[in-house]
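General statements about sequence and structure are easier to judge against a single worked case. When preparing material for the folding task, we compiled for one chain both its residues and its C-alpha cells. The amino acid sequence and the C-alpha cells for this protein are reproduced below:
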Amino acid sequence: MVPIVTPDEMAAIDAAAPEPVDVLVQRAGAAVAWAARRMLGGTYGRTVHVIAGKGNNGADGRVAAARLSDWGASARVVEAASCPATLPAADLVIDAAYGTGFHGRWDPPDVGGSPVLAVDIPSGVDGRTGEAAPGVLAAERTVTFAALKPGLLFDAGRELAGEVEVADIGLETGSAHAHLVEHDDVAEWWHPRERSSHKWSAAVRVVAGSPGMTGAAHLSAAAAGRAGAGMVVLSSPAIDPPAPAEVVRRRLPGFDWAGEVLDGLDRFQALVVGPGLGREEHTVESVRSLLEAADIPVVLDGDGLFAASWNPDGTARLLRRRRAATVLTPHDGEYASLTGDRPGPDRLVAARRLAADTRCVVLLKGPTTVVADPNGDALVVVTGDSRLATAGTGDVLSGVLAALVAAGTPPFHAAAAAAWIHGEAARLGPEVGFVASDLLDALPPVLVGLGRAGG
C-alpha cells in the first residue's frame, strides 16, 4: 500500500528526518529533474520554464533547473511572486511555486499549450482536500515526495495532478495511518474458495427489496454469488423478489420479521441488510431489532442505514451495542442522515469520525472511496469512475463486500477490497450505456486476475 499523509503529517515527517533540509531538497530536485527528462524524451536543446516560489517547493524547482541545465536543456527560473501573465512557449513548464501548505490565492501564468510537471502538488490545490483555486495549472504529471497527499486523490486535485509519481527521498513514512489500495493489496486480502469448501463455508444472507424496489435485492444477491459466496439466501418482506436461479428465496412476513431472519442465521458468515428494503416504520423497527440481535458481521446499506439513523436511542448507541462487526456503506446523503451533516471537503476526517462514533467500519462512497476503521486507520480506493454513478451499483457493492467477509477477509480489508473490485469491474464495462447489472458479469474476470496474482 502507498502511504497517504496530510500536510501537517508530512511536516512532522520532514522535521523528524535525520538529514538536513538541504540534503532532502537535493534529492527532491533530482527526482523532479528525472521526471522532467522522461517527459521531454531527452534534454539537449529543450526549453524548460521553472516557476519557483520562496519555500521548499521553489528550492526543489531550482535544483531541478540546475540539473536540467547540466544535461543540456535551456532551463529558466521564473519567480512565482513576479511571474508574468504569459510565459513564452516551452517544451515543459515545472510548477514549483507553492506546495501542500499554501494558503491564499495565486494567479498562475498562461502557459499556452506547454505540458506541466507539478512539484509535490499543483500550486493552489488544497493538500488536505483537493479543493482548488480558480486557474490552477493542470499538470500532465505530478512528482510528490515520500507519500501521497490527500489533495492528489480527492476533488479537483485528482484531475489537476495528472499522473502521480511518488519519489522516495529517504523519509520514514511508517507513521502514516492512511494508505492507497493497489492490486497486490487486494490480491493478498482476497480468499479464493479452497478445494475442500462446501456451499455453507461462505454463506451470505441478504435482507433486501420491497414492492417497486426488487431490483436492488436481485443485484445484491447476484453480486454475492458472483463474488464467491457458496450459498446466498434472499428474503424480502411480504414479496418474492426476482433473483438468479442459484439464489434461494425465503419470503418474510410484512411485519415483525426480524425473528425469522435470526432463525438459522448462525449458518451464515455475513448478512446484508437494506438495499431497496423500504422505509416504513414497521420495516425500520424490524431492521433495528435484527441489528441488535444478529451475531454475525452485517453490511448495512441503503434503507438499512436509514433505519439506523432513525433509531430513537441514537445511531451510535444502536450500532455500538452490536456484538459482531458492522460495515456502513453511506453515500453523502446517507452520511448526513446518520450524522446530521454531509461529509464536507475533508473526507478522510469525515469517514474516521463516523467510524469512531459508531465503532463500525465505514465505507464512504464517492469518486474516491474512503474506508475507515474505529481506530483511525483509513484505506483509499480510486479505481471507480463515472460509470458507477448510476442506480444499483451500490447494491452490487454490498453483495461483493458481504461475500468477501463471508470468505474470511476482515471487514476493514474486505470493504476496501470490495470497493477496489467494484471499480475495476466497472472499467471492464461499456463506456456509454453502462448499467449496474453490467458489473455482475465483469466480477469474475477481476477475481480471476486477483487469483493469478496471489498464486
Q: What stands out?
A: The chain has two domains: 2-176, 183-454. The radius of gyration is 25 Å.
